[in-house]
Design a protein that fits this description.
It holds the Pfam family PG_binding_4. Keywords: Membrane, Signal, Transmembrane, Transmembrane helix. The chain is built from 10 helices and 27 strands. The chain is of the alpha+beta class. The chain has 3 domains: 33 residues; 177 residues, no CATH class; 233 residues, no CATH class.
Length: 454
């Protein structure tokens, strides 16, 4: 009987021990189990406490506070006193809510059951930060639209000859948005928000002032006639040739060249076409004369060439004719042919120049105007014909002509070699002499046909 009591007492003690162990374990298990579908305590997403919330509940809480208000917020840009805005909704700004709520829910899930229990009973603060993404393409379009509105070309001052003086219209400034900098400023401002859009983003754009290349101040330096040159075309021109000269002169008249700018005769006058009014007229072709559209305008380029030389500006591209020109001394001519031969020069003066062209009364004239300080020097073009080349005579037997008869196919003319110099004078004394050309005009041989027909 005594032994039986001892067994009963032992069993009772065992039950008590087991109960003492299993009841706390059950409590731990039950507590942890209750958080199977909700977020552990102490977890915040940004500043939203999502402890004890399901993933869906957490998503709604965060979305209501942050994502829902994104559409009301804007990126504001101020440029030149004007305001431009684009909403974050147009940038498709989106928070990583799915990612952060998943992170919040998974917090502590990898721990043992007892560590999970500890985390629940004594929560540790867990802060999870939001971040967002946005589409930069609408932002590029936004900045480009601001650029289109802000950018404005500077307007050059203009100058026109009026009687003995000049009239100048003032220049106006232009403006240029620094669009690359603005894009960087906007993205930097958005990135600096740190994950939450709680207010508008404000950015100040940089707008640069663009000065006109030709300001009124610069053009006012054009105040004095510094050189002139003229040739006579009336006695040597057909009506068509005269028209061609007048059209080309008109295209050049009033042209302004700033220091360092270049002039191209073909570039300014353009192609000589019938649509522009150019007519067929005699033109030098090799060693003979034929008809060509725009014939005669070499007299325009030649006259301008000499006027510019006498302003102290040398040519950068110039060729002489193959045969001498009747309207200027040897070596003074400058031939042009659209697409082939051009007359060019660069304004090497410290001041702008104004070119005035006139073709009235059969006289072709170019006047060059610039700053009055340039009149302290004058220039003169001189030539030195240092060799005369005699023509030869060549014969062609022609069976269509009676024997003993001849016919001249080509008249002879002498050739010449000539050096041309630009002389510079100051106070009446020559201070320099530069050779600017060493031209050869080849002789034109006489060609005679001799009859051989019997």
């Amino acid at each position: 009987m005594k032994k039986k009591n001892i067994i009963i007492i032992g069993i009772a003690c065992a039950i008590i021990v087991i109960m003492g162990i299993s009841i706390p374990a059950y409590n731990v298990y039950s507590k942890v189990k209750s958080f199977d579908n909700i977020i552990y305590p102490g977890v915040k997403i940004q500043d939203v406490d999502v402890s004890g919330k399901s993933v869906d509940e957490a998503k709604k809480m965060v979305s209501d506070k942050y994502q829902a208000v994104v559409g009301d917020k804007k990126v504001n840009v101020q440029a030149q006193g004007k305001n431009y805005s684009i909403s974050y909704s147009k940038l498709d700004a989106r928070y990583n809510i799915d990612k952060v709520t998943a992170e919040a829910f998974n917090y502590g899930r990898n721990l043992s059951i007892y560590d999970k229990y500890k985390l629940i009973k004594k929560p540790q603060q867990k802060d999870i930060k939001l971040s967002f993404t946005y589409d930069k393409k609408p932002l590029d379009e936004f900045v480009n639209n601001i650029k289109k509105d802000v950018n404005k070309d500077a307007v050059n001052a203009t100058i026109t000859k009026s009687g003995s003086g000049f009239q100048i219209t003032p220049d106006t400034d232009g403006y240029k948005l620094n669009d690359a900098e603005l894009k960087n400023k906007i993205t930097a401002a958005i990135d600096a928000i740190g994950g939450t859009i709680t207010s508008d983003t404000n950015v100040q754009a940089t707008v640069e002032t663009v000065k006109a290349a030709r300001s009124k101040e610069k053009l006012q330096k054009i105040n004095t006639l510094v050189s002139t040159f003229n040739t006579s075309y009336g006695p040597i021109s057909s009506p068509g040739r005269a028209i061609n000269i007048q059209l080309a002169t008109k295209a050049i008249n009033g042209l302004v060249l700033m220091p360092g700018e270049s002039f191209s005769f073909n570039g300014v006058v353009g192609e000589r076409t019938a649509a522009k009014g150019y007519q067929a007229a005699p033109v030098d072709i090799g060693y003979s004369t034929g008809m060509g559209l725009g014939g005669g305008i070499c007299q325009v380029s030649t006259t301008l060439y000499n006027a510019v030389l006498q302003a102290g500006i040398k040519a950068t591209d110039r060729l002489h004719h193959t045969i001498p020109s009747a309207y200027v001394p040897l070596g003074f001519d400058a031939t042009v042919d659209y697409g082939n031969l051009d007359y060019q020069f660069k304004n090497t003066l410290d001041f702008p120049i104004y070119i005035e062209g006139n073709s009235d009364n059969g006289i072709e004239t170019f006047n060059i105007y610039s700053d009055n300080s340039l009149t302290s020097k004058t220039y003169k073009v001189v030539n030195n014909v240092y060799e005369t080349i005699q023509p030869k005579v060549s014969y062609i037997d022609d069976p269509t002509l009676p024997a003993g008869t001849t016919r001249i196919d080509q008249n002879p003319s002498e050739g010449h070699r000539v050096k041309v110099f630009l002389q510079t004078y100051q106070n009446g004394q020559m201070i320099s002499q530069d050779m600017i050309a060493n031209d050869t005009y080849n002789a034109v041989d006489q060609v005679i046909r001799r009859g051989t027909k019997k």
